[in-house]
Amino acid sequence: MEKGYVSLVLHTHIPYVRHPDVIDALEERWLFEAINECYIPLINVYDGLIKDKIEFKITMSITPPLMTMLEDEYLNRRYMEYLNSCIELSEKEMIRTKNNKELNKLAVFYNERFSNLLSVYKKYDYRLMNAFKKFHKLGYLEIITCSATHGLLPLLMINKETVKAQIEEAVKSYTDCIGHGPKGIWLPECAYTYSLESILKEYGISYFISENKAILNASPKPKYGTYAPIALPNGISTFGRDMESSKQVWSSINGYPGDYNYREFYRDIGYEAPMEYIAPYINKSGIRIDTGIKYYRVTGKTDKKEYYDREEALKKVREHAMHFAHGRNKQIADSSKQMDVPPIITCPYDAELYGHWWFEGPEFIGQFIRMASEEWTNFELTTPLEYLKKYPRVQCCMPCPSSWGENGDYSVWLNSSNDWIYRELHRCAKDMIRLTNTYKEPTMIEKRALNQAGRELMLAESSDWPFIIKNDTTVEYAVRRVNTHIEKFDKLYEQIVKNCIDTKWLAYTENIDNIFPNMDYKIYRSL
């Protein structure tokens, strides 16, 4: 029997949190923590597999904001300061815990871990995109794109020009970094609606990742469910999320990350150590935050946590990777009986789950990939693009509008807590389109202002802001980000139409919100 396929797709995204105008911005640590706990550990996993001559295929969407931040000189300098601080704190912890054998062992573990992160960072010349581009070039990793600033495209479709601008800028940004255009795209929040495919087709996109409901409720009903892609009438394909494999990782009840042997996420010495000791390693304003040094394991539903045991945790990683591999084996065996093409199980996840939320996640991916290369499995790892090349005949269906959010619709990003955002976005979008259609031969200064207006609109469109507001986390920051970008856009609009551009303020704004250095405002031209 011909083997089936498993496609791991990691969605790698952090919103644009570059703040050179703020001393020790808390939000920049979102990026630094992801680098420490997810991105470099994944790079280590990939390098280890290559060193051991393990053949594998994996897909990662690296969003334009994250790509830009990983290449940004200011943020890389700030990350270096952050990592050196982690190393220094771990050195102090080795001294502080010298009389406690269990804690000291963990302090040594963290010191070695942070030192390894620094070594890998240096190896790739302080630019992590160098690593991901290497894996992409060698054929192990397929890098796909996302919309320019992770805007939820179905909710922006009232002004199609803004959706087209999100896709065009994403493709341009990807091409500038990788050297060729993307073939695949992760639609933000896996959110699809009718006619999106026509815009994707225009920019050379061959496929996108969607929620299982997009496939299962497609018209006509797909013959193979999510075990095969479907093709839209214009030829673009979509791969639906497999729910069985998703629940094994994501489920808060039965998911692997909740195992009692894994590291506890919430207990961090940043909240527990004496202030005079921990002050240099938390926020400069004195706000207690995570340091990355966590000494406890999940233990159970109790406040009395036991110390983390790295060896036991890695044993569980192997057990769970084996369980995951056997689960895919069974799915392939069962589904292939009713199929005349090899099934593909599409496993899309947020990359940051692996390492940040689930500390042992990168090791899980490494172990699963190693098991997938063994002869007992009845599947191979592949990417969506490789699967389409091998099996180009795909059933034609129209996917159902959906997202991977709660209820499978767009309600997480559009509800009574955040609906005000879209009134502002749609108003600004109309103004941006009007500017683009009016200023066909702008002066140099006008062009800079028009380009910056485009950047501010895109930054305001990020789906992260309504998501944060709905989930009641860092609400004040999300509201401020939306309002700040809208205010900057409105100021630019007024200065442009009144021919009174403040060049000093414009230069300052270009320096702060410097995403997409090759932005061309004409991407907002009327359709």
TrEMBL record:
- Which Pfam families does this entry report, sorted A to Z? BE_C (PF09210), Glyco_hydro_57 (PF03065)
InterPro entries, alphabetized: 57_glycoside_trans_central, BE_C, Branching_enz_MT3115-like, Glyco_hydro/deAcase_b/a-brl, Glyco_hydro_38_N_sf, Glyco_hydro_57/38_cen_sf, Glyco_hydro_57_N
Tell me where in this chain the 1,4-alpha-glucan branching enzyme C-terminal domain is found: 425-524
List residues of the Glycoside hydrolase family 57 N-terminal domain: 8-324
Keyword Electron transport in the entry? The reply is no
Q: Does the keyword Cell membrane apply?
A: no
Keywords, ordered alphabetically: Carbohydrate metabolism
- Family from the record: Belongs to the glycosyl hydrolase 57 family.
The record, for PANTHER family, names: 1,4-ALPHA-GLUCAN BRANCHING ENZYME RV3031-RELATED, 1,4-ALPHA-GLUCAN BRANCHING ENZYME TK1436
Q: What is this protein called?
A: DUF1957 domain-containing protein
Please name the source species.
Clostridium aestuarii
Phylogenetic placement of the source organism: Bacteria, Bacillati, Bacillota, Clostridia, Eubacteriales
